[in-house]
Amino acid sequence: MDSIKRAMALGFARFEAVFEYAFGQRNNPFVWLGALGWYFYWIVAISGVYLYIFFDTGITNAYESVEYITHEQWYAAGIMRSLHRYASDALVVVVVLHLFREFALDRLRGRRFFAWLTGIPLLAFIYLCGISGYWLVWDTLAQYIAIASTEWLDTLPLFGEPIANNFLNSTTLGDRFFTLMVFIHIFGPLFMLLLMWVHIQRHARARVNPPRSLAIGTLGILVVLSLVFPALSQGPADLDVVPAEIGLDWFYLAAYPLLEVIPGGQLWLYLFGGFVLLAVLPWAPPAKRVPAAAVNLDNCNGCARCFDDCPFGAITMVPRSDGRAYDTEPVVNPNQCTSCGICAGSCPTSTPFRRSGPLEPGIDVPRSPIAALRNEVVSRGDANQVLVIGCDTSDSAALEQDGVTVIQLPCVGMLPPSFVDFALARGFADGVMIAGCAEGDCQHRLGNEWTAARMARTRDPMLRQRVDKRRLLMSWLPRGSLKRRRRALADFRARLAELGDE
Ligand code: HEM
Ligand code: SF4
Ligand code: SF4
User: Fold this and answer.
1) pLDDT at position 282
2) Is 170's pLDDT higher than 70?
3) Ligand 1 and 198: CB distance under 6 A
């Protein structure tokens, strides 16, 4: 499984490099797939509400009302119809890419299973809402969908009477199914919104809005598409006539032609199997159990920075339990903590300058304690070298060379800024390079963003003013950018050489 993920991650990295080149790191759409999902959802919802004003929900007049929307009011409701369709298609594209990317980057195993599992029903809902939407137009495509879907449902032993009989000819046609579809198409998206909210419950500050320029750009593309290729109906449904040719929306309806070659029951089995397979992926294989972050109340002043910075909402602040003069203390939920160490990087007590007793911050991760980081800096440090602090995800280990020492942390967000000061002031490094994930794409969600802000002195704990920023390099690059990382390091070393002992 690991090699499949690695190959997929490499494929994504190659492909995304083109987008990064075109849009820049911040606006790379691949980094914002989940947020784009939310964005397209809102476009679909708003355009849908507008269409509902003009749409006739009865089967006899539905088609005419959609024709009115498309042709009479092409400049308003017509554009809304096209936006509704194209944003729904875009939703499928970004969500499917999002699924594959989260899988490839292994953001689903261990204590991160929650978003994955709650994503699966979302996928089903997207299709249910999309298919019911096509049904509502009641054109020949809707007729095809109605017949194919009900015949497929009839292969399940659910209904006494075959429900496809409703669509035998125009005399058997009733409003029953149509009303059900209207109901699904209105309440399905509302339920989906609830699920989307649940989906991000284990993400502090979940990114549900793409950057403004990306949002404007994608909306612009959808509007242009709507004007150039307006969404049209395919002729009124007539159950007495078998439609000769139908144009399918391949984003939603790609599985329908399969019904003609694979028996319906078998297709249900494949679908069910696909969902089961998706559902077990977070445990294929199970992640190694790493102990959660641990609080040491003796050194905690209740400042709540760890609570503010934890990307997975694993920390809550509760009333103080040890009788000390502080109001609150952090409590870690071990079922939500991914041991990223970002909380240890945010704790003001994680300072290497302390002299009395061992270094035990208010919060620490057992798999990579702050004291071990200090020991490494001290034992491997050298005044003539560059100290690279990298994360498990960046290729930082490969930067090790003569005059360069690499220390890897679970996430660079675990690095308290005081360590940069310590390494430079105490002669353990000539310069410090922080090598982390690309902007907006931290493997642990927020580690690079918090580190950049701490070093820029805009977020606590801040880098001390006395640190010469020319001796600090922050390198935020996507996976697979080893060459660019090496170049950045070489340039940095050259600049340090020019600085000399200044
Ligand atoms: C309507 C559909 C969906 C929307 C709008 C959506 C949106 C999002 C958003 C906004 C995030 C948070 C990104 C961040 O702040 O880091 C996220 C994370 C995630 N989603 Fe989705 N998602 C959808 C469907 C899915 C599906 C179908 C799957 C897979 C089955 C999935 C799997 C995940 C995973 C694994 C994460 C990241 C978990 C982590 O970082 O620990 N999502 N999604
Ligand atoms: S290790 Fe990471 S996930 Fe766990 S409490 Fe600290 S910041 Fe949160
Ligand atoms: S950041 Fe450190 S001192 Fe502040 S509440 Fe968390 S553990 Fe306590």
Assistant:
1) 95
2) no
3) no
How far, in Å, CA of 352 to CA of 427, rounded?
14
Q: Per this entry, what is the length of the chain? A: 502
Q: Residue 139 has what pLDDT?
A: 87
Q: What is the pTM of this model?
A: 0.92
Report which secondary-structure segment, H or E, holds 378.
helix 370-380
- Name, in order, each residue with C-beta under 8 angstroms of 87's C-beta and a sequence gap of 6 or more: 40, 43, 44, 47, 222
Q: How far from 439 is each of 71, 105, 112, 370, CA to CA, in Å? A: 45, 15, 21, 25
Ligand 3 atom index nearest CA of 305: 1
Radius of gyration of the chain (CA): 28
282 lines ligand 1 (CB under 6 A): no
Give me the residue label for tokens 């931290």: 442
> DSSP assignment, residue 396?
G
Q: Quick check: 495 pLDDT over 70?
A: yes
Distance 108 CA to ligand 3 centre (A): 28
> Which residue is closest in CA terms to ligand 3's atom 8?
300
CA nearest ligand 1 atom 42, residue: 119
